[in-house]
Design a protein that fits this description.
4 copies of one chain form a homotetramer. Chain A has 14 helices and 10 strands. The first copy, chain A, has 355 residues and is an alpha/beta fold. Chain A folds into 2 domains: 240 residues, Type I PLP-dependent aspartate aminotransferase-like (Major domain) (Aspartate Aminotransferase, domain 2, 3-Layer(aba) Sandwich), CATH 3.40.640.10; 91 residues, Aspartate Aminotransferase, domain 1. In chain A, strands 1-7-6-5-4-2-3 form a 7-stranded mixed sheet, with helices on both faces. In chain A, strand 4, helix 7 and strand 5 form a beta-alpha-beta unit. Chain A is globular. Chains in contact: A-B, A-C, A-D, B-C, B-D, C-D. At the B-C interface, helix 10 of B face helix 10 of C.
Chain lengths: 355, 355, 355, 355
Amino acid sequence: MHQFRNDYSEGAAPEMLDALIRTNGEQAPGYGVDPYCEHAADLIREACAQPDAFVQFIPGGTAANAVCISAFTEDFEGPILAADAHPTAHETGAIEACGRRILATRDALGILTPAEVERMHRDSIAGGCHCTRPAMLYFSNTSEFGHVYTRAEFDALCDVAERLDLAVYVDGARMASALAAPGGDLTLEHVTERADAFTLGGTKAGMLFGEALVVNPRSKRGRRAIERIPYLVKRGGHMTAKGRLMGVQYGAAFTRAADGSLPYLSHAARANECACLLARGLEDAGFEPYVHTNGNQQFFWFEPDDAARITEACGAEVTPALDPAGRGRVLLRFVTSWTCRPEHVEELMGFIAAL
Amino acid sequence: MHQFRNDYSEGAAPEMLDALIRTNGEQAPGYGVDPYCEHAADLIREACAQPDAFVQFIPGGTAANAVCISAFTEDFEGPILAADAHPTAHETGAIEACGRRILATRDALGILTPAEVERMHRDSIAGGCHCTRPAMLYFSNTSEFGHVYTRAEFDALCDVAERLDLAVYVDGARMASALAAPGGDLTLEHVTERADAFTLGGTKAGMLFGEALVVNPRSKRGRRAIERIPYLVKRGGHMTAKGRLMGVQYGAAFTRAADGSLPYLSHAARANECACLLARGLEDAGFEPYVHTNGNQQFFWFEPDDAARITEACGAEVTPALDPAGRGRVLLRFVTSWTCRPEHVEELMGFIAAL
Amino acid sequence: MHQFRNDYSEGAAPEMLDALIRTNGEQAPGYGVDPYCEHAADLIREACAQPDAFVQFIPGGTAANAVCISAFTEDFEGPILAADAHPTAHETGAIEACGRRILATRDALGILTPAEVERMHRDSIAGGCHCTRPAMLYFSNTSEFGHVYTRAEFDALCDVAERLDLAVYVDGARMASALAAPGGDLTLEHVTERADAFTLGGTKAGMLFGEALVVNPRSKRGRRAIERIPYLVKRGGHMTAKGRLMGVQYGAAFTRAADGSLPYLSHAARANECACLLARGLEDAGFEPYVHTNGNQQFFWFEPDDAARITEACGAEVTPALDPAGRGRVLLRFVTSWTCRPEHVEELMGFIAAL
Amino acid sequence: MHQFRNDYSEGAAPEMLDALIRTNGEQAPGYGVDPYCEHAADLIREACAQPDAFVQFIPGGTAANAVCISAFTEDFEGPILAADAHPTAHETGAIEACGRRILATRDALGILTPAEVERMHRDSIAGGCHCTRPAMLYFSNTSEFGHVYTRAEFDALCDVAERLDLAVYVDGARMASALAAPGGDLTLEHVTERADAFTLGGTKAGMLFGEALVVNPRSKRGRRAIERIPYLVKRGGHMTAKGRLMGVQYGAAFTRAADGSLPYLSHAARANECACLLARGLEDAGFEPYVHTNGNQQFFWFEPDDAARITEACGAEVTPALDPAGRGRVLLRFVTSWTCRPEHVEELMGFIAAL
């Protein structure tokens, strides 16, 4: 059966693979200082409608978070984020390995809210040099539990950040899915306009590997980060020798197709459609979601026995969470990628119906 | 007016000061490898009834926490502790500066509970190498909000730690107060018997400075920590050149007086008595405590105006906390030290009554 | 003109590229826990003649060094290495970012010698906890300046390490070149037999990216490192989501061709031949090498004007070094890869002859 | 026999001890925010003739180095220093524990020279983001081997630092000795005028503990460091709860005596006189010094047997160094403190004469 384990189960989507094959024999300078990376950065700046944005390609998402958070903070500063965010949940202390302390809020469902940002900021600042100084907000879009931030939510976070002089960093490991989510009202241009930094994840959007870290040079913080990033990338061991591989793939992903669409987004749109189809199917069948979302990750509650069988069949992963109904149900995560097709969803729904 | 700001407002208690003066001119080897430190360590081992305990003197409490937590963990491991503990609240990321990630539970009031330890452990272990591996429990006694752990609470934490193969480290910056708390049933011998490591804080117990870190060599973890600690102390910049100063003071604090009492505990007992007197007075006057405690830190809720005046008068500090009654009250911390006398408390109560 | 800038200018060698294309559409679990990685590890173990070796794929060389050095050391320990080694020269403090102090010897030409290892060890140990404790040797083969260690040199280092209880780690970013160097007498089996850990570099041997870190489980140190490595890889941000890409490529590189040869070594042999051809040509033309080597990196001294023109033409990089002749000559590095052919060397020699 | 082991063998000099006793019972705010620290800082600013200097008291020398070097650098920057300086020789990786890489020159005798500074800077900058970026010079005065920098040497280092845009930090753990060295021409005012930061060591100048870190706010770097230092002090675990102890002692050390002298310097002058007396005696007796110096540390070569007896008698420590005469002699360090008197030196010389 088609696997719904995650969105990095396959290799590269056709455009990216073709570009890699086509350029394979060419000689180019190493470490990302090559024409492919330059061209890809230009295409990204164009898609973002920000001609002076700084673009750095980084091979993985945890690496991108560690670099960006380090770049925007001093040694004794940290990011405010929701307790269930990726850096607290699944990075084995990668941010702390950079000597940074995370300021985790008590937000429910891993969705960062202005109220908790304000409380955390107030309590930290009150302690002066006895507390880690807040320097930035971190949230991922889509979030760890699949939430797609609305424009209003995003703006509210940017507003509070502006008021408190905090940078805004959006971890976009699944930004393609967020931007392509049916009904979503947040655009790439708007994210670029308001965030200080964000990533356009490639690994989960049909590339072999790669995250594009985009930084806005308009603020003093942003300019400092831009100066720091190349050094931090190298120091962190994230400077890809054959850096042009990311340039080649991003170049393909951000070159408009004949119909004007960006492959980066159209692959995500297909994945989202399948995920929404699955979510509707599960809800119709009486299963309860963790949050309602149109992104490519869907979390649903199952009885333990069913969960085990579903996991075995389609790779859906168990996610640690407490059943709010107190019934001991298990939370399963289903993820779709650009390879998923409606018939895969139907097959899975058939399997679940037959349990 | 006498200040209730904290328990490190004054210099040294008489026994400690006298000992420092008496030995001032003697020449001794540096860095804590001297007869005074050796003798003091012997006295501490005797008081703990553990002849083979390892004792390391460290100048401050944050340093002791950073050293001990580093000593008991691997780079990718961390301590489980309550979200409001000292390392999360008031150490500016000192643990993270050692590259360690803290695993903070959702326990209320900063009091660590076995249930939350188990949940945190289960979720972390489930993630394998994608999550920080839990290696130890950390809690302070008295706690950040003044709680004195009972023997039953302490044993329950030791039990869960044993079951999950976690080390137990008790931050004893205020251990003297905890052990001398009226009605307390936890003894130094019992702490030594069950914990893998703990500190006997000196700074808040009448010394100029110093924490004695005591480590139990019975476990493999403990033996590894013992080998690591001297290096970590030096690497952290915590190796006091005139290390014998701590030996001299601890020697005085743990030399029994004519009546058989330990100065280390009798000073704390006096401080606790005054704190309890204050707590009773405030409760009688209708003020509400944050937690009920017999230690030397008392936290009470006040209307903002009153709080400002009390702070100005006696140095009581505002502590960030949300009024559970939703009335916007402010939480004040009152701390007594070995210099506090009942008449100081009466003076303060008179002031508060006249507000 | 063909570029001699480095050995990571191109994409993947044919076997690796074909394997990537062939497996592109398959779904596999992420993070290197997949059948491709498992199979590749088996092939590597076979080539090393060590059935129980631990194999971890890591995307880059600096990352592999940081992980392996961290894995084999405690926080307060460090590797002994020659002052001009890669971690001191070109990693922007990646090892120090892990909190480790490097113990750099005064060896000339970046070639580690037993005498300097012994001196550094003796002086460090004499300082007890006031000095970083030596825990391992690090050297790269080929070295930063292209030296190919002989079996005798390698054994002498292993002997001193054994006597001093130090682990031996060989950075093999260019191990393929070292093992395939004409006249070289060091074999993969012998390296495996005596070193505690080494890498088999892929990036500079015809893969898109990847280093295979091989660890010997026979020693206590090795077993501790093996337990630590997966966590350190994740914590360092080096856990490749589509980890199977490295498995696929290493699988191809270590699958014997029809003639029984390993693509991993035969590509390197071709690169070495071209480099030796170039070296002979340059020496015949009267240019002086930095060291004599049969590896794929050649360093020669040139007058500044010539150096500038050569760099412009073929990408040879200037390497900081003091002209021993005191004539202000510039040191150029020429590197060949699996794409280099004799006619490329001839073209370059023609260019130089015409200067 | 009087011990010549080091200058931190005793407690506090009379002025400091008296001040501690006199103020022992007073209540003052913690963490160095108290009137004593404020007053002492004023006196230091006056002695330095720099009214706006920033002064931070830090309990120990390794801590002061770690804080100051961190404060003046970015994560990926480091200090240039001589290979035998204290941070490389005797701090167990304390600077690397802050994630900073040290750029060690090849200077002989641990004396930093402009030529090596320039070479190290040039090579590092040439590597761009692939190398640690040099940000500051570090040297101690007196140096690790007792050298007292002349005004000309100091100015030459400040000149090269200015030209290369590097900060200058002088580790003054023995600054009192350096400033009071007979024949020395470097003044406190001049150090203050040209260095970006320096310490006025207290521990080795008759205090129980404490280093005063003085930072010049005139440069952008200095202002950034000043903002960072309080946080780094706390994060490093170096925030002394009873911070006023350092204020009290520095207040006494920098309060002019009836004859107009500063106790800080007059104690050092006495120590220097005894050390010079010893050096003259040893040279007259035919022993060879490592370097000629008028500071309070003297290093001389001895035959191994004599060295062992001298060490046993007076505590002189063996220092790792290679006998330039190739005769296998041992280098001994003799250190005098404010308690040393000429008759102590005569006794030691008598002992040595009788060997």
